[in-house]
């Protein structure tokens, strides 16, 4: 026999051994005597795997019990060990747990509430500091930024993102202020000249010739104002993404020839030649013909106004792009000016100082509206300005009614 393991709490825990042969009782808790806790089927199952069972009551104990039967070996004999505990044990455990929860639960709730209040207060103080700083930021103080707590959480990331947004807004505001100031400066000069010429014609013109000369000067300045206003309107539309394009297939050779024809008279007056060449007669551009002519015209005007020697217009394919270039034999841009050549109102303080400073900016705006870009660079012979625009798909074996002119040269003295 095995000693009773529960002398302190009699009848609260039971232990029970069953033999394999004839289901004989091998050993048991004293209070159980020879009572059977498992039926034959349960004993057969318990010899092979653990088995849980519940009994509503035990001998000499008017309460239920929960049993675990498991196979064991004793002196080489296969036995079934049955252990169990009465419901009183569970009630005592639950009662103890309830008492602990009644004591510890409110304390834990109070502690969690206090900790949550402190944490929320710290987070809200940071938010309130950001709100107070945001109320102080205005167009007069664009350099102000929100205080960002070094907490490493979403609040810090939010503050960083808002400060980055404020930096972008400040850059945009500064660009707009510079644009207004530069536009005002550009408008002031022709208006001042017009006023001077009109005042002279009104008060000092001695005859019809002087009056006519003053009016011609005023007319020239009016044309300049109209051109400048159109350029400013185009730049504003481009920055707002509202520059309208009529996309069509434009043969590169025709585009170059058209621009050359437009500036032929100026080249003849300057005794300079225009050369146009397309690397591929079938090379075509997907773009707005009028806007592309305007962009190329600005580049040719820049070359005729500031450059020297021949003006060369070329077109070549680069992957899915067409590169349009205008080159001359002038002195070139100052090296420090090249990165800013296409910025609005930018002027090279070297040889190329005339004009409004919007011609190349318009070129870039038109190129970007086509999804392309513009570039500038000095070469061994002078300056080369380029536009990168989308290439039109090649038509499948389309017959041509006219022989393409891959190159055109307009020498001085033979224009008209």
Helix and strand arrangement:
Layout: E1 13-19, E2 25-28, H1 40-46, E3 51-55, E4 65-74, E5 77-86, H2 87-136, H3 154-203, H4 208-239, E6 248-251, H5 252-262, H6 264-269, E7 274-278, E8 284-287, H7 289-306, E9 311-318, E10 321-328, H8 359-369, E11 373-378, E12 383-390, E13 407-410
Parallel strand pairs: 7-9
Antiparallel strand pairs: 1-2, 1-5, 3-4, 4-5, 6-8, 7-13, 9-10, 10-12, 11-12
Helix pairs in contact: 3-4, 4-8, 5-7, 7-8
Protein model, in words:
The protein is of the alpha+beta class and 416 residues long. It folds into three domains: 77 residues, 2-Layer Sandwich (Beta-Lactamase), CATH 3.30.450; 86 residues, Orthogonal Bundle (Helix Hairpins); 163 residues, Histidine kinase-like ATPase, C-terminal domain (Heat Shock Protein 90). Helices cover 44% and strands 20% of the residues. The protein contains eight helices and 13 strands. The strands form three sheets. The chain has a six-stranded mixed sheet, covered by helices on one side. The longest helix has 50 residues. The radius of gyration is 48 Å and the shape is elongated. It starts with 12 loop residues before the first strand and ends in a 6-residue tail after the last strand.
């Amino acid at each position: 026999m095995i000693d009773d393991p529960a002398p302190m709490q009699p009848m609260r825990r039971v232990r029970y051994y069953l033999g394999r042969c004839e289901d004989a009782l091998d050993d048991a808790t004293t209070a159980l005597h020879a009572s059977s806790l498992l039926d034959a089927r349960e004993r057969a199952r318990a010899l092979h795997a653990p088995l849980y069972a519940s009994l509503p009551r035990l001998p000499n104990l008017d309460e239920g019990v929960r049993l675990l039967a498991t196979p064991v070996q004793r002196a080489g004999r296969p036995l079934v060990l049955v252990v169990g505990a009465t419901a009183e044990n569970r009630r005592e455990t639950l009662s103890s747990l309830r008492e602990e929860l009644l004591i510890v639960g409110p304390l834990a709730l109070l502690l969690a509430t206090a900790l949550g209040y402190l944490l929320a207060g710290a987070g809200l103080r940071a938010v309130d500091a950001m709100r107070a700083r945001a109320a102080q930021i205005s167009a007069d103080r664009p350099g102000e930024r929100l205080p960002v707590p070094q907490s490493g959480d979403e609040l810090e990331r939010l503050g960083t993102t808002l400060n980055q947004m404020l930096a972008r807004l400040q850059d945009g505001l500064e660009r707009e202020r510079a644009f207004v100031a530069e536009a005002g400066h550009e408008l002031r000069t022709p208006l001042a000249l017009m006023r001077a010429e009109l005042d002279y014609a009104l008060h000092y013109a001695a005859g019809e010739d002087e009056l006519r000369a003053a009016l011609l000067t005023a007319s020239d300045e009016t044309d300049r104002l109209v051109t400048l206003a159109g350029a400013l309107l185009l730049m504003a539309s481009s920055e707002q993404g509202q520059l309208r394009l009529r996309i069509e297939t434009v043969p590169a050779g025709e585009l170059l020839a058209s621009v050359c024809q437009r500036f032929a008279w100026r080249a003849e007056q300057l005794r300079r030649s225009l050369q146009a060449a397309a690397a591929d007669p079938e090379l075509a551009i997907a773009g707005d013909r009028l806007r592309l002519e305007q962009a190329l015209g600005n580049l040719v005007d820049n070359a005729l106004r500031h450059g020297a020697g021949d003006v060369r217009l070329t077109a070549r394919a680069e992957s899915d792009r067409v590169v349009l270039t205008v080159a001359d034999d002038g002195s070139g841009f100052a090296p420090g000016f090249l990165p800013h050549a296409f910025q609005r109102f930018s002027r090279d303080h070297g040889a190329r100082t005339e004009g409004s400073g919007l011609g190349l900016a318009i070129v870039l705006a038109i190129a970007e509206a086509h999804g392309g870009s513009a570039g500038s660079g000095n070469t061994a012979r002078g300056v080369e300005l380029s536009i990168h625009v989308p290439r039109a798909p090649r038509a499948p074996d389309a017959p041509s009614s006219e022989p393409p002119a891959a190159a055109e040269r307009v020498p001085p003295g033979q224009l008209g």
